[in-house]
């Protein structure tokens, strides 16, 4: 899987918790987006050191019809709060730098249905991001933030993120996953600023 010569591949990570009991949780939306990207590219996941599943893919199409950049799609299979170890391991094995690392994760402070993109910044209490920052030694990696909204009333945010999407949200979820996958693809093909212009515009999502 190493890349002798040439540029290191992009590493696109989807955060979540392992096991079927967590599969539909809001906290696992990163896994769901990675599944969508694997489906688009026809890539298959395989185990990586017992803590992640990795799929090797080409994402998108370059002008002229050539296949897009090589990406490693990484679904963490460790618990959220220890995501950093396997992510750092994949990145180091590829000789990649954090500026080619894209992390897809749930975001309480963004309304459901919206996708927001940034590089660096704080973790906002997100244990998966905190673990990755600690393991890779920097906050300067790219984030695709998938809005899941704040919990209603006085519900504990920890309980909320570990709950499944509501019935109404599940109807809209395929569209949201598709939008987040589009955002990853645009970052890789056109860069963060172009993707931000697209996904942060008033017409992008609501």
Automatic annotation (TrEMBL):
Site positions per UniProt: Stabilizes the basic form of H active site to accept a proton: 106
Cellular-component GO terms for this entry: cytoplasm
Recorded GO MF terms: peptidyl-tRNA hydrolase activity; tRNA binding
GO biological processes: protein quality control for misfolded or incompletely synthesized proteins; rescue of stalled ribosome
Superkingdom of this protein's organism: Bacteria
UniProt keyword Protein biosynthesis present: no
Reaction(s) the record says it catalyses: an N-acyl-L-alpha-aminoacyl-tRNA + H2O = an N-acyl-L-amino acid + a tRNA + H(+)
Name of the protein in its database record: Peptidyl-tRNA hydrolase
Originating species: Actinotalea fermentans
Gene (UniProt): spoV
